[in-house]
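Hi D.,

Good news: the full-assembly prediction came through. Inputs first.
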Amino acid sequence: MRGSFFVVAVLALSAGSVSAQAAPPQEYMDLARSIFAELIEINTVNSEVGNNTTAARAMERRLLEAGFPREDVHVLIPSDAPTKGNLVARYRGNDTGLDPILLLAHIDVVEALPGDWSSDLNPFEFLEREGFYYGRGVTDDKDEAAIHVANFIRWRQEGFVPNRDIIIALTADEEGGPRNGVRYLLAEHRDLIDAAFAFNEGGGGMEKDGRKISNNVQLSEKKFYSFRFEATNPGGHSSLPVRKNAIYDLSAALLAVADYDMPVMLNDVTNAFFSQTAEIIGGEMGDALKRVLANPADMEAVEFASQEPAYNARLRTTCVATLLDGGHAGNALPQTATATVNCRVLPDHLASDVARRLEALAAPHDVTVGWNGRERDSPASALDPDIMGAIEMITEQMWPGVRVVPVMLTGATDGSALRSAGIPTYGVSGLFGDMDDVRAHGQDERIRIEHFYEGQEFLYRLVKALSGGGIA
Amino acid sequence: MKRMFGRAAALSLGLGLLPSAVFAQNTSPQEYMDLARSIFAELIEINTTDSERGNNTVAARMLAGRLLDAGFPAEDVHVLVPDDAPTKGNLVARFRGRDTGLEPILLLAHIDVVEALPEDWSADLDPFEFLERDGYYYGRGVTDDKDEAAIYTANFIRMRQEGFVPDRDIIMALTADEEGGSRNGVVYLLEEHRDLIDAAYALNEGGGGMERNGRKISNNVQAAEKKFLSYFFTGTNPGGHSSLPVKKNAIYDLSRALLAVQEYDFPIMLHEVTEEFFGRSADLVGGEVGDAMRRIVANPADTEAGRILSAADPGYNSRLRTTCVATLLEGGHAQNALPQMARSNVNCRIFPTHDPDEVLAQLQALAAPFDVEVEPRGEATPSPPSPLTDEVLGPIERITEQMWPGVQVIPVMSTGATDGLFLRREGIPVYGVSGLFGDMDDVRAHGQDERISIQNFYEGQEFLYRLVKALSGGGIA
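Then the structure:
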């Protein structure tokens, strides 16, 4: 494994001087890879077999062995959830009156069933193949966790003294478990993570057909809501079927959702995103985006732009069926059938309006829609010139010509909890990925090896630049 | 409970006696009604679902205890438990007759029941609590099939206490896992204890009386049954993050395939038993539906007649064709991830003369446009019809006329699969006959709030008593 890794790394280095500039020194690439592999192979799903505390302790050990003082490295475990531990570590800087920078990453991952993955892959075995690293969490979000830890160690070994403290928080249950690490830290250990601003997942580089298009900075995000669709029926013996059936009713309601598009709604961040993107990509799609910006009621343009899932999800609230359950015996007509419909709601779209629309789709099929009934805010972070300036300069340095694009994230991250707590959060990583092959949460999750190390170097330079280290 | 039961029984009997003497003739003496009720209640309250909580052996042992207490010798009462399934015990008991060279009659009932979740039932009912209310007994299994099991046991005890000596042995087999568990009792007994259950023919569930709007229409004798086979419908997809949905989705693919199954009707088919069924039912039913029955027997290609029958009753529909229906659903792996897999169990009841391979090909044709795979879960057991002999049909017709004058005996094909399948396949003819009437518009077997009319339960008890006696040399009173 290690041999083949070297070959790939050497190839990448000899391919061009851009790559050479974009990669960290070999010893810190080795370090990041070793931490990354260890982290992937610790199962941190929200289940009986997953344990976030084990992963937090592994990262704690890495930092202590590298010489960080005991009092600056904490594994913080909720008393009611022993497997949901979080790591918080502090890199001490000069006291110049500047508040710290918080580097946030979650180390829990979405469930992955080996049976769903390709037969020669195991989601919890770190595997390198043909220029990619494979494993559950290699793009969401153990890559950033491993990079933050490796960069902490690198700065320390290089003797870097920042002009403010830098904090790492590697947290639990971002993916939906019951003991969200960021909420726990905000509630119980706020002093340990308080910061001027935070960097988090949620941004990243967009690649299409192997070409780097933009380095995205996430400034806002959609709201996460799940709705429960339920059909009921008196049931009966399956040898005497009737047309009316809970499973068929539910199926018909879900297909109504599948065929329905929520209305197009633009906001400041998505306006900026689409106008920049239109310039970058040009062509027919670029024209369509411009037409949508000029007139969101141009249905032909909207339809064309919506073919791209990433654009569709930024034009409107989306809803999709993700879980199904129904029936009670193989030889009985079903008495209940339920589905979870997961919606990503635009920041200024009321969840109650989404609920009303879903109810209108489901009611003709005698399917009910349930939800928690709570409206939530999702404030955007400000376009700070110091932060955006550093991101733009380093992006130009590493990938000349690649634009920095402000974005609204379609997924939900812990950034919303930080933003709501008054800590502006920027989703930025310099980690590029193919926008047509997003495998986070899905099967055969992978990251391009070269992108991983470029992301490592980008975050190293960016955090250094914003903590008094300048830009090399 | 006991007192309340007494009052209700007296009320219904009293009401029955006033207009005619028929009801008085139609139930067993009070002590044997009490006995049957007591066995029935105890059996309902023993959970025999195929689950962690269910235990068929407990039920089999309870019934064995009843027989032994009543004086049956230990060598004629067996609780037979498969080595690999300690909770899947079966009861086999033998009522000894004179040796006249006649082979025994086998009385078969299963004592396992379909799963019932208390929260699916009405709030004031518990599927595993025997409850009497407004002229009905409620509980999981009161119609399928603990009613017959309790009746056989009570009738064995009655015949013994009355000193009846049959001209052949009568065997009772009360078995496990008819409803789909892993250790089917009839299969086990045929393989391991065939000598204990070998018989000239068997009586089983699968028939019974049909009632509509409170009127008894027919006493059905099941002589054939449909084949049972389930299929997995599976949609697969690479999945992904649910914040970036795409049109192609395993759940939506599966939904489309299932709606195609809902909309599809298999072709109309007929054979001897269903021809008899529709032919004899036509006059009883009358009107447009009765006409349609005559028309379909005359010409199975009369699709308009088929449409009328299918719309009139799910039971007619299911006797005209193979039916398939989605019964179970599962899919997805996380609420925030696009589903990689969505699957449904589609349960088919295949016409005896319909080739299961054709059914599979048809289902695949329905599902393929949506990229949904269809695979059979095992193989369908062949199900040859049992011959309609005078030896068996004669007494059934005479006792039916005696108890319910004017009610027709109608040979039927059962739409559900019973254990009769395994006996028929082994050369033991099976007749589904019980004299237990039920409302054909309110079939609750396998469903919620399962119930049986109290009056119908006791009439069934008496009918089976008379029938078994008639078939074993006791004549008809």
